[in-house]
Amino acid sequence: MTDTHRTTERRSMGIQAALVRSILDRYQSYTWTVQGFGMARVKIADVGRIHVWDSRLRTQLVSDVHAHPWSLKSTIISGELINQRFVVAGHGLPYLHSRIATGEGGGLIGETGEVFLEAATPEFYPAGAIYRQSAEEIHRSIPMDGTVTLLERQMGEPLQETSVYWPQGTHWVSAEPCPAQEWQLSQVIQYALARWSAT
């Protein structure tokens, strides 16, 4: 990578961080939802979403191993995050899986099957790092509280289909998004801003 390329990347990251910070500073001006994976999120036009991660928003025993209906690029604006990918294997951890309609009003669809998942090496991403993931990849996000990420992807229909996974012997627990309450946003976003570590 050339010095020019690095300078361009740093400038782009700085612009993204400034945009995200301006939105968090005026969060009351936007429509937020809370998702059971442990995040408050807001859509940005046709680009993607800002995620503000906080375990206080996490649904108890939520089934958080999943794929996506679309490929994505995630930039860690502030904080740090572990991305844990999984692959389907002939051995490993026994899981159940099913298709799901994503978004508000979604839920399990189709039959439930059995599968073995093998965990890949966990990937650690600090502020300023970027990772990409294709639609069919299985993963879970393990963020530090207060982490802020910018997820970029091609926007589609509100309800789309993907796959979800949960350990055998347990029940699937939905992470379905719902409207955010003001007290949730105030606590979570103020905590994230207090821990802001954007590069």
DSSP helix count? Answer: 2
Task: Provide the spatial order of strands within the biggest beta sheet.
Answer: 10-5-12-3-2-1-14
Percent strand: over 45%
Mean pLDDT: 90
Q: What kind of assembly state do the chains in view correspond to?
A: single chain
Based on DSSP secondary structure assignment, what is the total number of beta strands? 14
- Reading the helices and strands in chain order gives HEEEEEEEEEEEEEEH
Low-confidence stretches: none
Distance between the termini: 19 Å
**By helix and strand content, what is the structural category?**
alpha+beta
Please give the share of residues in helix.
10-25%
Shape annotation: globular
